[in-house]
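Handout for the seminar on molecular recognition.
Each group receives one record of this type.
Step one: identify the two inputs.
Step two: read the structure output and locate the region that could contact 3-methyl-2-oxobutanoic acid.
Step three: write two sentences on what you found, then compare them with the reference statements printed after the record.
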Amino acid sequence: MSEKLYIFDTTLRDGEQVPGCQLNTVEKIEVAKALEALGVDIIEAGFPISSPGDFKSVVEISKAVKSPTICALTRAVEKDIDVAADALKFAKRGRIHTGIGTSFYHIKYKLNSTQDEIIERAIAAVKYAKKYVEDVEFYAEDAGRTENEYLARVVEAVIKAGATVINIPDTTGYCLPYEFGDKIKYLVENVPNVHKAILSTHCHNDLGMATANTVMGVLNGARQVEVTINGIGERAGNTSLEEVVMTLKSRKHIGIETGINTKNIFKTSRLVSSLMNMPVQPNKAIVGRNAFSHSSGIHQDGVLKNRENYEIIDPVEVGISESSIDLTARSGRAALKHRLQLLGYTFEAEQLNKIYDDFLELADKKKGINDEDLQILVGNKHTGEKRAITLEHLQVISGKSTIPMAAVTLNINGESFSAIESGNGPVDAAFSAVKKLVLHKIKLEEFLVQAITRGSNDIGKVHVQIENKGKMYYGFSGNTDIITASVEAFVDAINKIV
Ligand code: KIV
Ligand code: ZN
């Protein structure tokens, strides 16, 4: 039988403390509702005494969200606790999260106090919060740097005072995974009344160990984890929800379950990222753009044979429709064939080989090849349609203080014809040369160049519209060289007259 792990989400409190990530109340409600749909057990909605905005957000989230417990943060100060209790008045289930620093640094330099006095203040705060709510969580700030013997005394005292959850924060992200695991183990083994409360982890990522520390905490007896979406939070951030949840889901032998609806992970990640203006790094575990994309030929071939060759999580489980096979110059024929099939194209081996050569040529010029690029590649040359006119050669001269010139060779019904023309730019010069060769009376009505993505190495898509004897003809092409794409699109349109 698996044991339940409570997921305490602090995206809207510790996460929202990050400069530039502040949300207004409406946005916070949107995130809170997404967290409810995700299945988190507790939402830390804010620190009500800190500002009227935080107070209001806790009130409104308490009204808007019904399933999770709503938690409000305080210091071990009566006024903070009064205000938090007031902000929670509409919560179906409210929790007050109070606490105080317990490390040598905090006691001496921040609080100018003594260990015994801190225990007294901690007891008083928990008892005071208990007047308002049954569910009181106590945090021993900087527990990561607090010696275990003293921490155990604090924990025992606050449980005796009525705390239902004990938060052991590694506030400065200082611990190594084995140290953090040992800390939780020490508390489990040395605090006589520990069974009366739930131990919680709250890890920061200063050394990149937040997830490892959290998992070690769970392996040693913690049954609540404090996490944020995308790992956002103070400095290097907090433990990321998605990493812990998917670790426990993919390593079932640990025997711990969460109530998270993992299929909502990706969309919740993107909602938080866009509302908080905090991009997700591409290689971020679980939710990064590259987390399920494969780029080397060997990996692509392996994934196409069996996804599990190179993936430990099915992307569908986190709400991503499928693994992506990134087409690059390192991709093999198998990956290209697969992607073309998804786009509805099937080719005989010989034709696929030719497309593959063109693909490699393009991939050398452009970092990533997307579906639109492929459609252009296939559409341009491999649909089997015979063209009366094709562009054989193009050379242009252009630049500052230069008269733009173009030399064009067209193949018309199997014979080559060349012309050189000038113009007000290289495209104008090339179009004039084409017009000279095809002998049709053509008027250019529309000429549109677009980059498919944003990079300067991108394919330029060109659409042209021409008029001949009162009729309109459309042409299209794409090429990393936009002058070539323009002339090919122009020739494409002329072919339709012919
Ligand atoms: O990191 C920390 O110690 C905190 C506490 C306020 C819980 O965020
Ligand atoms: Zn924190």
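Reference statements: DSSP finds 17 helices and 18 strands in the chain. The radius of gyration is 32 Å.
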